[in-house]
């Protein structure tokens, strides 16, 4: 029947445009949600950056000798240890590739260079140093010695023993 057919197409048209409208609304909503998500992301990253900045400020103050509550200084000490482990990795990698690590800026410098190509700092001479700085693993005796006499051990232990041990690994 004609009427029914018209009705059918009429209804279909209505339904389609309603569906399109709904889809359109859903798309708008979807876009709005995406926008909000990205806004949320941006804000969260800003929070992270600020937390990081606060952490680095505290850490610098810790390094500068400021006293902090135990839970904070423990984290700072952990960071110190991690950074020294990182430095060790970096120097070992550099040594394997025939480079030294610039003590000033951390750049890889060819072993024979007297100066860092990146920052111009003089490089420690790798051939002469090991003789003066032979670090043997005497962890136990070190503590016993320092307990008796001076407390100047800390300065000596912060010097880099990495180069010396790395040099000794050479095989022909
Ligand atoms: Zn440098």
Number of helices: 6
Structural shape: elongated
Strand content: under 5%
Radius of gyration, in Å, reads: 32 Å
Task: Please identify the oligomeric state.
Answer: single chain
User: Distance between the terminal alpha carbons, to the nearest Å?
Assistant: 100 Å
Helix fraction by DSSP (H/I, runs of at least 4): 55-70%
Largest sheet descriptor: 2 strands, antiparallel
**Unreliable segments of 5+ consecutive residues:** 128-159, 161-172
SSE succession:
HHEEHHHH
Beta strand count? 2
Structural classification: mainly alpha
Ligands (ions, cofactors included): zinc ion
Overall pLDDT level = 78
What spatial order of strands do you see in the largest sheet?
1-2
Task: Itemize the secondary structure elements and their pairings.
Elements: H1 2-63, H2 70-96, E1 99-101, E2 108-110, H3 129-132, H4 139-148, H5 153-158, H6 162-168
Antiparallel strand pairs: 1-2
Zinc ion binds next to loops.
